Amino acid sequence: MPARTGLLTVLPQTASILLLAAAGGVGVLVEGGLQDNATEGSSGIAKELSHAAPPIEAHKTSFPGRVSATSPYIDPVTPHRVYAYAGTTAFIPCVVNNLGQRSVSWVRHHDIHVLTVGRFTFTNDDRFEVHHDDGSNEWLLRLRSPSTNDTGIYECQINTKPTITQLIHLEVLEPRAVITAGQELYLDRGSTLRLTCQVLDAPSTSDFLLWYHEQKVANYEVEKVEVNVRVNNDTTISTLTLRDAQVHNSGQYTCSPSNARPASIRVHVLSGEHPAAMQTNGAQTLPGPRGCFPLARMLPAILLSLPPLFRLHFQLHFVFHYTS
């Protein structure tokens, strides 16, 4: 019986053609993808599939084979991990020596999906294709417009017995902004607000970076705001500074680079009579005995970690000290 892979039916090794069961007709696999009712290219397909050893399956560990002058093996220069950026074409290389009449296949692990065999594509996802130049020993799996969902293990196989295989982990990085102060910031009225934003996992520096206070562009529409942008080791870093912050300066601040996902923080500018956790320039301080907001939030976890006798003593001490 033929082995089935998704919509594709892989016929036994003696078959000369790969058929696709499709509504209204028969499709045939051609170089670069599927073509309905194809009549040409069958001889090329037959040549590729005559060397394919079905069924192709995913393996848990790599077995690249031994270095040899005559037998096929995957060259040690083939990487175990490849990084790519979301939206930018990813290339996963597999360097194969002494291939001879064998075939190279690519398998995606998370759904055990055969992507390519030889030069032919086995998937309806047209973002995938294999690239190989005549005379070269490199077989590149090319993935256009990758997303973080494409992160995972891809397997390069040679159809020997046992199968020679190399597992390669593709990690797709999504450029993102990070505000170093976290998600919330408290400071006294009249203090200096200083926010720092870094653009991480970006293939290049940002063309521009805007800060927003609620719906206003803070770079241009908020009084007393100073914005500085610099590049350090190919990382874009921006600092927003607002001196003599007032209560009306409270709200959501957003760092929005041209080439990355934005990041936001909520700022609370408080009058002196209100208890609050004070955090300035990334350092957290307490204004006095009544400034117990962070401690109050941590209290349940602290109490649960104490033995019963110490727990009671701690509760009595806390109530006496912070309510007197």
Explain how this protein is built.
The chain is mainly beta. 12% of the residues lie in helices and 42% in strands. The chain has helices at 42-49, 218-221, 293-304, 308-323, and strands spanning 3-5, 8-10, 19-22, 25-30, 33-36, 73-74, 81-85, 90-97, 104-108, 113-117, 120-121, 128-131, 138-143, 152-158, 164-173, 176-179, 184-188, 193-200, 209-213, 216-217, 225-232, 235-242, 251-257, 263-270, 278-280, 283-285. The strands form six sheets. The protein has a six-stranded mixed sheet with strand order 7-15-14-9-10-11. A five-stranded antiparallel sheet has the order 1-2-3-4-5, with helices on one face. Strand 9 (104-108) and strand 10 (113-117) form a beta hairpin. The longest helix is centred in the last third of the chain and has 16 residues, at 308-323. The chain is rod-shaped and about 80 Å long. The termini are far apart. Mean pLDDT is 77; it is low at 1-42, 45-54, 275-298 and 318-324.
Rg (CA only): 30 Å
Order of helices and strands: EEEEEHEEEEEEEEEEEEEEEHEEEEEEHH
What coarse outline follows from CA principal-axis ratios? rod-shaped
Provide the spatial order of strands within the biggest beta sheet.
7-15-14-9-10-11
What is the terminal separation in angstroms?
Answer: 83 Å
Unreliable parts = 1-42, 45-54, 275-298, 318-324
- As a percent range, the share of helical residues equals 10-25%
Number of helices: 4
- The structure class reads mainly beta
Mean pLDDT: 77
* Oligomeric form: single chain
| Main pleated-sheet profile | 6 strands, mixed
Number of strands: 26
SS strand fraction:
35-45%
